[in-house]
Amino acid sequence: MKALLRIIIFVPLALILLFFSMANRAPVKIGLDPFAGGDAAAPSIEAPMFMVVLAAMAIGVLAGGVTSWLGHMSVRRAAKVARAEAKKTRLEVEKLRQQALAQLPADANAKGGKR
User: Fold this and answer.
1) pLDDT for 35
2) pTM of the entire structure?
């Protein structure tokens, strides 16, 4: 089911990206100096249009992921503290259970001795 869902989502997405790339192969000039004012000597990069758009999309997805990861940092920290407390509590419960089981025969002997 999961593989079918992946195929349903990713195959059309890959086709869209492929068609977009094929339709936008013309080179574009990207200026790196915002103050150059159309100067030909200013630093620039020439790349196909689809690469510029796909790189911008990838940078956007990466920035969103990093922002989300940083935003959930407090939740992950609270979960880590809760897991440590749960582990400590489980160990304490097990220790108390062992103590109770160790006292059980002594109580049974004491009750049996009174009869």
Assistant:
1) 82
2) 0.63
